Amino acid sequence: MDPVRLKQNFALVGANGMDVAEYFYADLFERDPALRGLFPSALAKQQEKLLAALSHIVGLVDDTPELVPFLQDLGRRHNGFGVVAGNYPTVGASLLATLAHFSGPEWNEELERDWTAAYQLVAQVMQEAAGLGNGAGSRA
Ligand code: HEM
To answer: Is the pLDDT of residue 4 over 70?
Structure first.
């Protein structure tokens, strides 16, 4: 995984502002309509929180001592939101689809590999902290 490549790609994607989060949630609720009910009806605040968290995570992707406790807290907070292990791959698929969409012609296999590996790590640390099993690959 190349942290510089991830950061550059996230900067490119993030330049599209709230459109990114809107696209992500639209894709997520199309993949699994049951997830809509977990979120508040007005999504604007959630969209901002998601983008802020993602940009914090990407900024710390090469700083494990800072990143891990942040992800553990985030994962534990998700316990209260009705999230189960099986939701993590769905969210990962929507995240990848969103990044690919906004990367346009810049998207390639290396980025896909890097983002997949990064998301799996993030999801694993969050799920372990939440007591949802051993993370990547687990199903609920
Ligand atoms: C990379 C992984 C994820 C990130 C960065 C992320 C980020 C966030 C953030 C920042 C919040 C705001 C609340 C807080 O900070 O505690 C939040 C809330 C929430 N997330 Fe996630 N999340 C992730 C994975 C997931 C997954 C897999 C699901 C499953 C559907 C999910 C569903 C929710 C729900 C339902 C809320 C609460 C909405 C509300 O009631 O306000 N998240 N998430």
So the answer is: yes
pLDDT, tens digit, 9 for 90 and up, residues 52-80: 999 999 999 999 999 999 999 999 999 98
Tally Cβ neighbours within 10 Å of residue 32: 15
Number of structural domains (the chain) is: 1
Q: Is residue 136 part of a domain?
A: no
Which atom of ligand 1 is the closest one to the Cα of 52?
A: 10
- CA distances (Å), 7 to each of 25, 29, 62, 78, 140, in order? 22, 27, 10, 25, 31
Give me ligand 1 centre to Cα 62, in Å. 22
Domain that residue 28 falls in: 3-130
- Which residue, judged by its Cα, is nearest atom 38 of ligand 1? 39
Q: 81 C-alpha vs ligand 1 centroid, how far in Å?
A: 8
Residue whose CA is at the smallest distance from ligand 1 atom 18: 78
